[in-house]
């Protein structure tokens, strides 16, 4: 069993089936990208959370249907976590905020 077979994903890579977008249940994709994929990838649906808690989007080629998971880059990831922290802080008083922040930092 390969690493790819252990990942939790809705993408099924199947060379025998026609590519099909059944998001959010399943996406049938060719197993390999084509030359058309370079400039024709689009994000599908909402942001998801991966196995280790890392946020990602599914991206699918508009031409051939090749699909992959695009994990957020440094800038998008920083903005994602800052937004989570800001929204969490709004609902907490000063003592609860410091307690929550200490707990989060201890996990890193």
Short description:
The protein has four helices and six strands. The protein is of the alpha+beta class and 108 residues long. Strands 1-3-2 form a three-stranded mixed sheet, with no helix packed on it. Strands 4-5-6 form a three-stranded antiparallel sheet.
Largest sheet: 3 strands, mixed
Radius of gyration: 18 Å
Compute the number of strand runs: 6
Helix content: 25-40%
Unreliable spans: none
Distance between the termini: 30 Å
* Beta-strand fraction estimate: 25-35%
Query: Helix-strand pattern, N to C?
Result: HEEEHEEEHH
What is the number of domains? 2
Give the overall pLDDT as a whole number: 85
Computed structural class: alpha+beta
Write the layout of secondary structure elements.
Layout: H1 3-6, E1 11-13, E2 20-22, E3 26-29, H2 37-40, E4 41-49, E5 55-61, E6 67-71, H3 74-90, H4 94-107
Parallel strand pairs: 1-3
Antiparallel strand pairs: 2-3, 4-5, 5-6
């Amino acid at each position: 069993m390969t690493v790819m077979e252990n990942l939790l994903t809705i993408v099924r890579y199947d060379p025998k089936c026609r590519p099909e977008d059944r998001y959010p249940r399943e996406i049938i994709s060719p197993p390999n990208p084509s030359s058309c994929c370079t400039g024709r990838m689009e994000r599908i649906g909402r942001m998801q959370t991966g196995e280790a808690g890392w946020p990602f989007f599914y991206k699918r080629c508009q031409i051939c249907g090749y699909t992959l998971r695009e994990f957020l880059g440094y800038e998008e990831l920083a903005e994602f976590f800052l937004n989570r922290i800001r929204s969490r802080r709004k609902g907490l008083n000063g003592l609860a905020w410091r307690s929550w922040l200490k707990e989060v930092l201890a996990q890193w």
